[in-house]
Write a structure and sequence with these properties.
This protein is an alpha/beta fold. The longest helix is centred in the C-terminal third of the chain and has 14 residues.
Length: 372
């Protein structure tokens, strides 16, 4: 099949009535829309609560006041336009200024709302030089936008330059295209050859996928994943926990199981960032943890590998455990290395969506204070 056509004009989406289009005008004035024929074909238009529809089709609730555009303070960690260095061993290239579809819950929607702020990477030589100087960087994430929206030629240029830096052992490509448009892989054998050429036994290329619901895993998605695995790519999956999409233990457990059957590691389940427009997709922390733990109970050990975290300004904060009265967090990945492993014991708050909503911190424990 030829590549599906991208659609930026929501009035061209056949499943939306004129009345609904009229009601969505204020949303469209604020946020972008983008999808394609393939992904829209996965929607059951007879079901107003269809989870695929929920992921890609705008809704009026996006206008609810909540959050900010840069909820994790990414600009604080930008050392130059398009290059973030938040965690000591990881550099992030915002290399792509495009996506295969605009997730309604996107945490980087500011990049598309305010393109004039020029947060995408343009000076690649300066980025390579920065990584070369910072020998603590052992992995680079190519994302954006969507890493696979870059041409294979451009990807090859980036990967070839990164492979010339000896201390960069891992290259990651962040993408949702295996959900949105798996034909990007199927129709481009040069991409598989690229992965085969540069994913080496001692320095692999990781594909960070974004399947949010089991119905996104179609036969053509399976084929595209299989091509990348056979080329030597290591596939991992991460997704937010989303209201109306995967906030059901049966659905999330099915997703974990399907991924493990495919040889894809469930990696992160993210709490939805408090980004403008995202309240309708967010699940409170404690409810999310209950859903996550219940879903894990439906899986083998291979399906249980995901961690539930929030990408906080201070680092990735993992939800570790709950008691009747308290909830325990751990800094899984710290922006400040001295905070790595720090544990917070907080009084429970069923209305909390983010770590900052926990005003009563009962105890803070540093990893060096623990007895082993």
């Amino acid at each position: 099949m030829s590549a599906p056509e991208y659609i930026n004009d929501i009035s061209r989406v056949k499943g939306i009535s004129d009345k609904e289009l009229e009601s969505l005008k204020p949303v469209m004035d604020k946020f972008e829309f983008k999808s394609n024929e393939y992904y829209l074909s996965l929607i059951n238009w007879d079901d107003p609560g269809d989870p695929i529809r929920r992921i890609i089709i705008p809704c009026r609730d996006e206008l609810d006041e909540w959050g900010k555009l840069d909820a994790s303070d990414e600009k604080k960690y930008s050392v130059m336009p398009g290059l973030q260095h938040k965690y000591s061993s990881t550099a992030v290239f915002l290399a792509s200024d495009s996506c295969g579809g605009y997730c309604r819950y996107c945490f980087r929607k500011r990049l598309f709302i305010h393109p004039e702020q020029k947060e995408f990477l343009t000076d690649y030589q300066a980025a390579y030089d920065y990584v070369r100087r910072h020998k603590e960087v052992n992995n680079v994430l190519i994302t954006g936008g969507d890493g696979l929206m870059l041409s294979t030629g451009k990807l090859e240029e980036i990967i070839r330059n990164l492979r010339s830096i000896d201390h960069v052992r891992i290259i990651r490509i962040g993408t949702k295209l295996l959900s949105y448009n798996p034909y990007r892989v199927i129709n481009d054998p040069e991409l598989s050859e690229l992965i085969k050429r540069y994913s080496l036994p001692d320095r692999r290329i990781y594909m960070m996928l974004h399947f949010s619901h089991p119905r996104e895993i179609t036969d053509i998605s399976l084929d595209s994943c299989d091509m990348l695995i056979k080329s030597g790519g290591i596939l991992c999956n991460q997704t937010p926990l989303l209201r109306g999409v995967n906030d059901d233990p049966q659905i999330l457990g099915e997703l974990f199981n399907k991924l493990s059957y495919m040889g894809i590691a469930p990696y992160y389940i993210f709490l939805c960032r408090p980004t403008v427009g995202n309240l309708t997709y967010a699940v409170p922390v404690e409810e999310a943890f209950h859903i996550f733990q219940s879903a894990r109970g439906l899986c083998s050990g291979l399906g249980k590998r995901a961690k539930i975290t929030m990408s906080h300004a201070d680092g990735k904060i993992e939800v570790v455990a709950m008691t009747e009265d308290n909830i325990i967090f751990r800094i899984h990945r710290a922006a400040d290395p001295d905070d790595s492993g720090k544990i917070f014991i907080c009084r429970r708050n069923s209305q909390a969506y983010w770590f900052d909503d926990y005003s009563e911190i009962l105890e803070t424990v540093y990893h060096q204070d623990l007895e082993y």
